[in-house]
Amino acid sequence: MPTITIDDRPIEVPLGATVLDAARILGIDIPTLCYLEGYEPSTSCQVCVVKLLDSGRVVPSCGTPVAEGMRVASETPEVHRLRRTALELLLSDHVGDCVAPCVFACPAHMDVPQMLRQIGDEDLRQAIATIKEDIALPAILGRVCPKPCEKGCRRQAADGPVEVCDLKRFVADRDLASREPYVPPCPPDSGRRVAVIGAGPAGLAATFHLRRAGHAVTVFEAREQPGGRLRDEFSEDALPRKTLEAEVGVIFRLGVELHSGTRVGRQVQFDTLTAQFDAVLVACGAVDKAEVRTWGLTVGGRGIDARAGTYETNVRGVFVAGNAFRGKALVVRSVADGKEAAAAISQYLAGKPIVPVQRPFSSRMGKIQADEMPELLAGAADLPRREGTRYAADAISSREAGDQAHRCLACGCAAHGNCRLERYAAQYGADPSRYQDGRRAFVLVNRGGSVQYEPGKCINCELCIRIAAQSQQALGLTFVGRGFDVRVGTPFHGTMDQALGPLAAKCIAACPTGALYFAPVRELVPLQGLTVRKRQG
Known about the structure:
The chain has 537 residues and is of the alpha/beta class. It is 32% helix and 12% strand. The chain has helices at 19-26, 77-91, 101-105, 112-120, 124-131, 138-144, 148-151, 164-177, 201-212, 241-252, 270-276, 289-294, 323-326, 331-349, 373-377, 398-405, 420-427, 463-471, 496-500, 504-510, and strands at 3-6, 9-12, 49-52, 58-60, 71-73, 193-197, 216-221, 257-260, 279-282, 318-320, 451-453, 478-480, 487-489, 516-518, 521-527, 530-535. The chain has a 5-stranded mixed sheet, with helices on both faces. It has a 5-stranded parallel sheet with strand order 8-7-6-9-10, sandwiched between helices. The chain has a two-stranded antiparallel ribbon with strand order 11-14. The radius of gyration is 27 Å and the shape is globular. Residues 522-537 have low confidence and may be disordered.
């Protein structure tokens, strides 16, 4: 049995093993896209490269057999740079969004597509749970938010965006009107106590997410009632007080202590809070700079200074969110601040380094051309927007809301979160635009069938072809075209369903880029002479 070293770690492996095999025994995570255990390696993606130190050669680890005394470098800056380049070259030809544009456009980065799928399935209980993963005040925001998510909706370029904000409001209103409004579960108490100064949108959102993390939260509010600027900036017509009270009430049902009519600096001193609590969040809205300086906090042009992306102030254990450091911002931005500040505080209380807020990695298709839009629209409900119609809970049925939700083009990738290309691109800091110079058109093969295929996401790894060929249980797949135009196709003009048959699930699981997936559309339901596609979650 030969012995080799990888990153100065010796390992004895069976004869015939590859460098990749040896690395996996050592627990070294070498990225692979075109490799699948049990099949001959094609070595086409080149993301598994390593360096042979004795010869200086760079080789694919999946197809390089070990030899006695071999010395290999895997986790070095040079090798990581080469892997990143390989990933960027693959991404340069990638046509697809990891994350839907509407998610990036939402300041709270709510999972809009998931919510819309659940509304489309008329599963409003799951929809409110999805919403409240990221947004603590959806009924309020459904009324006062300027709808940036809809500005990011791709369907806006065709016949108007999906009415995301109003659908969110509909779900939240239905929930509040139910006998048992959704109260998210909280883990066992962490043993940590947090003081939140201010019960406006940022403070309320932070309180919600801090309790969801298991921390004990005490809110200090100068006014007699929570709500902050929500009570001043919006009329009764724009934001009914009944809605405000009901939604705020759900937050305090999580087990939060409220000290109303308690102004920090008068009824309670700031130093008292920092001494008695494990962390303090200042979320009291626009601040008196002279006063907060007496608290030991530094201030800037807009308000309290904070470290970018972590919400930390200059005082250890003290954080800030919302207009207390922004001066002035949209309510949805304050709600997003509260969520992100709560995450930072939880990291601090756990003794972990506070990781600055970052946008998740995502390959992006960019602007959709006019000739591509029909392809996208073909997978969504052929239904007009409810222009001028209020989405009051008693003015629209769950079915009608579901039909509107089916207008979603499902821009995000079906494999998001389970895609190896996405995972490794994020891990190695790959830039999807580094080598891009235009892109191919978006195409979806076998629309209406069970198995769908997006050629623009395919890296020609050959795994689906090899799986079908080895099994011989189905018609199989093949490469068609020449040169740079080579793509996976079906022989004899068959469909993807015919080509893969019982092997579809195995091929989809092996696909490293989300190019193959089961169709989310299962049945067509007629509605008032229109075709509405009912989606599966």
